[in-house]
C-alpha cells in the first residue's frame, strides 16, 4: 500500500486566470486543475449553501511520476510500514498516472 503526501508548497500545472477569488498568499495560484469540469467546481450542500472547490487534480497527464521532487502537487513516500510488525514497504515507483487515473500498485 502506498500513501500520497501533500507537500507544504505546491504548484498546479496550469493556472485558471479567470479565477475571481482571493489570490494565494504564496503567489502559487489556485489548486483547482483547469481540466476540472466547470459544473464540478461548485456544489450546493444539503443546507442550501454553495461550496466552491478549492483543490482538484484530474490526473490527465499520462505517466506522471510521484517520486519526491518529480511532481508539482503530490509526493509518494518511500518508507517501511512497521505497524503491527508488517513486512511491507511503501515504494513511490508504484504510484503513477494511467488512463486518467492515479494508480497505486503493489507487487507481490
Question: How would you describe the overall organization of this protein?
Answer:
The protein has one domain (1-108). The chain is built from no helices and 8 strands. The protein has strands at residues 4-5, 42-44, 50-52, 75-76, 79-81, 88-90, 95-98, 101-104. A hairpin with a 5-residue loop joins strand 2 (42-44) and strand 3 (50-52). The strands form 4 sheets. The protein has a two-stranded antiparallel ribbon. Residues 5-17 have low confidence and may be disordered. It holds the Pfam family SKN1_KRE6_Sbg1.
Give the DSSP E fraction (strand runs of 2 or more residues): 15-25%
Query: Main beta sheet, described?
Result: 2 strands, antiparallel
H/I helix tally: 0
Order of helices and strands: EEEEEEEE
- Total discrete domains: 1
**Strand order of the main beta sheet, please?**
1-4
Helix content: under 10%
Bulk shape: extended
What would the average pLDDT be, to the nearest integer?
76
In total, how many beta strands? 8
The Rg value, from CA coordinates, equals 17 Å
Q: What distance lies between the first and last C-alpha atoms, to the nearest angstrom?
A: 11 Å
Amino acid at each position: 500500500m502506498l500513501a500520497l503526501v501533500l507537500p507544504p508548497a505546491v504548484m498546479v500545472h496550469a493556472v485558471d486566470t479567470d479565477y475571481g477569488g482571493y489570490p494565494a498568499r504564496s503567489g502559487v495560484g489556485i489548486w483547482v486543475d483547469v481540466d476540472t469540469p466547470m459544473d464540478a467546481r461548485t456544489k450546493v450542500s444539503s443546507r442550501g449553501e454553495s461550496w466552491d472547490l478549492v483543490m482538484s487534480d484530474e490526473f490527465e497527464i499520462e505517466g506522471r511520476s510521484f517520486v519526491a521532487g518529480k511532481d508539482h502537487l503530490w509526493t509518494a513516500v518511500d518508507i517501511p510500514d512497521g505497524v503491527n510488525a508488517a513486512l511491507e514497504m511503501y515504494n513511490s515507483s508504484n504510484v503513477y498516472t494511467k488512463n486518467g487515473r492515479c494508480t497505486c500498485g503493489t507487487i507481490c
